[in-house]
Amino acid sequence: MAETSNTQHVLKSQANWDALYFYQKSDVIYQLAFAFCERFIHLYKDRTRDQVIQAARSCKQNIVEGLADGVASTEMQLKLLNVARASLKELREDFEDYIKSRHLQFFVSGEPRYADMLNYCRYHNRLSDYEPFFAQWTDEQMCNYAITLCHFIDRMMMSFLKKLEQEFITEGGIKERMHRARTGYRQQQDERLKQLEAELPRLKQALAEAQAEAAKWKAAFEDLKQRALKMYYEKEEEIKRLKELLGEENL
Hints:
Layout: H1 21-40, H2 48-69, H3 74-101, H4 112-123, H5 127-130, H6 139-171, H7 174-249
Helix pairs in contact: 1-2, 1-6, 2-3, 3-6, 4-6
Keywords: Coiled coil
Protein name: Four helix bundle protein
Coiled coil: 186-245
């Protein structure tokens, strides 16, 4: 039976994470963190290097995994996206600690460089917008841009999580969707059964009328057949008599 417009779906649509700004920025922050570590954190002497890279990677990868799992489980999606936020906060803390421990400067409100940085991070999301600067910025600049990106990503993710939370409250998780889908399917079958049962007496009456009509036509056919046969035999007998009569006259 064809799927009706009110059919409930168990699986949700796959989110295109590459189109989400917070994912795009998370890709930037991972690549920025990697470039930062390559330039400013010693490969063997500072364990912070691995922690920074792994925190940035965890943020990006958990966004991808969370959005992918959201096809089946909103609950799992919420958990993984919150793991991504936790990794992001860890990463931001590492960049802030780097500035503090090296006695560098935080860019603060009121400074031209702060306003420029804020506007750039707000309106630029793709890696290609930032990558040319990775080899040019100082460690102070990279840290400040990274911290600002972390703030933007966190705010965007919180808005997204609130939306998911509302969906979860109103629609439930996969168990609720499975129940609604199954219940909806059963309701459709019940409605179809009632419709067929309601149509059955009418169809039965139509069948009886058709059978009566067929019987009438059958009787008419039989009558016509018998009259035709009678006429045929009568004509055949007349032809036979005429032939016999003509034969006697010829003698």
